[in-house]
Design a protein that fits this description.
The protein is of the alpha+beta class. Helix content is 59%, strand content 15%.
Length: 187
């Protein structure tokens, strides 16, 4: 019984770590006025009929804090890359000079910064809901074990450990959101 309890708690911890990792990815996609390659993670290019991530058809560099430079490995990919960037709705207009595509990040207005902070907080709240759902599922599994013969004290201890994991991960979410908010609001 104790091994089953440890397995439930371990699985809950692993799933919570994955939720934190997902949150970090989502926060990385929110642009904060500085060029960050993660902004382009959701851009997929039509490469000979296959939907291919942008970083697999071109070299992406950041020459300065507000500019992306995208150099395709094949010249004929300039137009499809340009089309994919426009279709991806990341709010950047590609500039094609026949050799490379440049993306310039416009400076963020105060209003846009506040909107981005709201988006960050919404992502954080979604992460917290995910963590709480993981906690709920783990506690339900512990209660099933208790019905199958696990002692009440051991079950309560297991629930306490799950709650401790939950608290730790929610604090992590808050820290990530505060960090991203600070990054967005710094001019």
């Amino acid at each position: 019984m104790s091994e089953a309890l440890d397995l439930i708690i371990s699985d809950a911890g692993d799933t919570m770590k994955k939720a934190i990792s997902h949150l970090e990815t989502e926060l990385g996609r929110i642009r904060a006025g500085r060029a960050n390659i993660q902004i382009l993670d959701g851009v997929y290019v039509d490469y000979y009929g296959n939907s291919t991530p942008l970083n697999q058809v071109a070299n992406i560099t950041i020459p300065d804090a507000r500019t992306f430079s995208i150099q395709p490995w094949e010249k004929n990919m300039l137009a499809p890359i340009e089309k994919a960037i426009i279709a991806s709705n990341i709010g950047l207009n590609p500039q094609n000079d026949g050799q490379i595509i440049r993306l310039f990040l416009p400076p963020l207005t105060e209003e846009r910064r506040k909107d981005l902070v709201k988006k960050v907080n919404a992502e954080g709240e979604q992460g917290k809901v995910t963590i709480r759902n993981i906690r709920r599922e783990a506690i339900e599994q512990i209660k099933k074990l208790q019905k199958d013969g696990l002692s009440e004290d051991v079950a309560k201890g297991g629930e306490g450990r799950v709650q401790g994991l939950t608290d730790k991960h929610i604090v992590l979410i808050d820290e990530h959101c505060k960090e991203k908010e600070k990054e967005i609001m710094t001019v």
